[in-house]
Design goal:
The chain is of the alpha+beta class and 256 residues long. The protein is built from ten helices and eight strands. Among the domains are: 1-50; 167-251, Homing endonucleases (Endonuclease I-creI), CATH 3.10.28. The chain has a four-stranded antiparallel beta sheet. Strands 5-6-8-7 form a four-stranded antiparallel beta sheet. The longest helix is centred in the N-terminal third of the chain and has 14 residues, at 66-79.
Length: 256
């Protein structure tokens, strides 16, 4: 017997283009069982009437791992999306991570598992990147910023309970944003010293996003943390002051 989430995960893999054989090998479920689920999928009696989502409870509860949620929220606002299952069975959360950062891919996977341990998390390889993907009926409960169209074409604001979590774990939120749409680079400049031109290098953080609302969430959090920043062109936020870069290095660091 398989629970409803396992069944939906297998069907989601089929929707990604995998064959019956591939899904069977990946999940350990027989092809006959998966084939049967293609035409009929029903909740097991022990799941009926049960909600796995604290946000859907009569008295909504915060996530059990608020630090990981704050990090995942930053990743979602940067490179994440939620899409409805084609059979209307729930939603897929996808966080797209570049192949160049395997550590980030693993951190993202662990953060999703910490927030929603009952939902399987799997990787979908694309050209140059990986979509860290998880299925659940409840992802829109955790990320009410979900909506039609691109994020920078609509208003993005945190719910009160989300802002409370970000206020409690601001560095995790900043880290998630930088790990999604930011970077740590080394800039250089030249200076004339005693008639000789010398080159100087210095680290710098950038965060780039087309949404003014998401940029504001980032800069408001930096302000609370005492990090000095500069808006370079309306879509890029730069942190270059030595003390502020030191703070970012201590709590965020480069991607890996």
């Amino acid at each position: 017997m398989y629970d409803i989430e396992t069944r939906k995960h297998a069907l989601a893999l089929l929707d990604q283009g995998l064959s019956l054989n591939a899904v069977s090998k990946q999940t350990g479920i027989s092809r006959a069982a998966i084939r049967a689920w293609l035409t009929r999928i029903e909740p097991l009696p022990r799941i009926q009437g049960h909600t796995e989502c604290p946000r859907c409870a009569t008295v909504p509860l915060p996530p059990s791992d608020p630090a990981n949620y704050s990090y995942l929220l930053g990743l979602y606002l940067g490179d994440g999306c939620i899409s409805a299952h084609p059979r209307g069975l729930g939603y897929h959360l996808r966080i797209v991570c570049a192949d160049a950062w395997p550590g980030l891919i693993e951190e993202c996977r662990k953060a999703i598992a910490a927030i929603h341990p009952s939902s399987a998390t799997y990787l979908v390889q694309k050209q140059g990147c990986v979509a860290v993907t998880s299925y659940s009926r409840h992802w829109p409960c955790w990320f009410p910023q979900h909506g039609p169209g691109k994020k920078h074409h609509r208003r993005i604001a945190l719910a009160v309970w989300q802002q409370d979590l970000v206020d409690a774990h601001p560095w995790e939120f900043v880290r998630g944003l930088v790990h999604s749409d930011g970077c740590r680079i080394t800039n250089w400049a030249t200076r004339l010293v005693r008639g000789e031109r010398r080159r100087y290098e210095y680290p710098r953080y950038f965060f780039t996003n087309l949404s003014a609302d998401i940029l504001r969430l980032y800069t408001d959090t930096l302000d609370k943390l005492g990090v000095e920043w500069k808006d370079t062109n309306g879509k890029n936020i730069s942190v270059a002051r030595r003390a502020s870069v030191a703070l970012m290095d201590a709590h965020v660091g480069p991607k890996y």
